[in-house]
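Technical note accompanying the year-one report. For the benefit of new consortium partners, we illustrate the data format agreed upon in the data management plan: each record pairs a sequence with a structure-token string. No post-processing was applied to the example shown here.
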Amino acid sequence: MNAAFFPGSPNMQFSTSGFAATVALAIAAVLPTQAAFAQPVEEVNYLLPAPPTLPAFGPWVLAQQRGYYAREKLKVNFIVGKGGVDVAKQVGAGNAPIGGALGDTPIIARAQGIPVKAVAVIGARALHHLHVMDGLGINQPADLKGKTITVMSYQDTSYFVLLGILATAGLTKNDVDVQAAGPVGVWQQPATGKAAAFAGPVDFAISARGAGGKVKTYASDQYIKTMTQAIVASDEMIQKRPDLIQRLVRATLAGLSDMMKDPKGAVGDFIAGSPSFKGREAFIEEVFRAYNELTYQGPGTPGVIDADRLAAVQKFYVSQGIVPKEVPVGELYTNQFVR
């Protein structure tokens, strides 16, 4: 560099025009950073399949309460849809840029011509598991024959997971009495002796124990390939607004990371965002620890979708007539936002 710009140089020269030019260059270098800080907050509607106040949405609530969306210059409004497939329909139609569903939702959505992909998964294991009432001699899937089993609905993934577990023992829905009992009855009926087992997330098992039922949980992923919750976006949004999808995914996964690192420490902030659980801190802590063990923790990078697992789920859905045919697995997901 020219020595004239260094104080103490024997050839030092100074002119107001040179100084002005230097200052102008310095300001130009700083302005992009200042502009980044001045980036306006973008308001976004984030669709979820059920109320975000439920424990299953802990990662989303933490991301909101701990300012991870705000850090991405986002004001997120959680809007409740009518289940994961409805979320996919709304996202695919452009009524919201992003949504929460299950990892299997794009399989069902694509079969209906809805152009959505999973862009991240919330956990490496499974959301729905098999829960059996103790003392009834049910120690393996084959023991379910002839038993009454509850699920949330016949269109819910809990039902599809149950079908998969039954299939590992050579059983079908005709070998058991499957009852669609809704989000409360699914655990309440077994807890009161009206069913022998049920399929659902781990908080349902904890609720059943709280109602006096003695419950054993069998992790579904020891029997079949299944999925946990996922973030879904439309093909159009992935193409036109990858920056927005990236920010939403990054913030949500930051909430998941906190849940995985410190389930107990997440309780206070969750209840601040879901005040209906105030006074039930012990219940929420137990739920979060169970989610951490059976849903969140697992091999691989958090958020990354396992293509082989997704392909296996799709093959099973085709075999059961849940969807009419397979589509290329690459149309169901992308890992571009979590690598």
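Partners are asked to follow this layout when depositing records. The chain is about 40% helix and 15% strand.
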